[in-house]
What we know:
The chain is of the alpha/beta class. The protein has a single domain, classed as Spore Coat Polysaccharide Biosynthesis Protein SpsA, Chain A, CATH 3.90.550.10. Helix content is 30%, strand content 20%. The chain has 8 helices and 10 strands. It has helices spanning 19-26, 41-47, 65-70, 73-76, 95-108, 164-171, 187-194, 215-228; strands at 11-12, 15-16, 34-37, 55-58, 82-85, 112-118, 127-130, 136-140, 154-163, 198-202.
Amino acid sequence: MALTDAKVLQRVADHRMIHYPVTAALALSPDRVVVVVGYQADRVRAELAGYNALETVDQPEQRGTADAVGCAKPLLKDFAGDMLILYGDTPLIEADDLKQLLAQHRLERNLLTFVSTKLHRPHGYGRVVRDAVGKVRSIVEEKDATAEQRLLQEINVGIYLLNANFLWQILAQIRPINAQCEYYLTDLVAVAAARGEVGVYQHPDPETCLGVNTVDELARAEKILERRRGSFK
């Protein structure tokens, strides 16, 4: 992966990476779609120019996932429905996955529902922490996790569906008190869990939840996409 290129502009099979999550989100027929851009923002905007129902907003400083979402508030502060948050580096997530997330969220009437999956070797991912009876308590990032927590195999995929009013209320309270000194979006989960209104859509296929951060992961994602399309076995 070329260090000079924005990650979401890397090509995965037929398209730049950013097109996959955007296309999946648009398949839900949302009222609005906002893409937060940072590094090489002009190039990312140019790549997305063909989408009419899409807006972009800048994240001037890279201060974490919660900060990125907060940058979209000026555009979405008056919206009162459910909001879907997903990352630009998850090219294997499909519309059907998001529809199942939405169905579960509404059926359970949660404040927040997020996607998890299980990995045998979950290095680099935030871990889902549950209590003795299996209820979600929080998500802890790997750099902040204890040795015991790092043994957990259920990981946070980074896709959230949540009430907009709840999002803006709690986002203002998040502080960068962690190993990376960043504003973590995962802090929302602990708040929703404390209110008894958090849900988890545990995806059965870890491959679909693959996040792309390395050259090897990029090659793996491309191979999976090509396999899905039947171009090789």
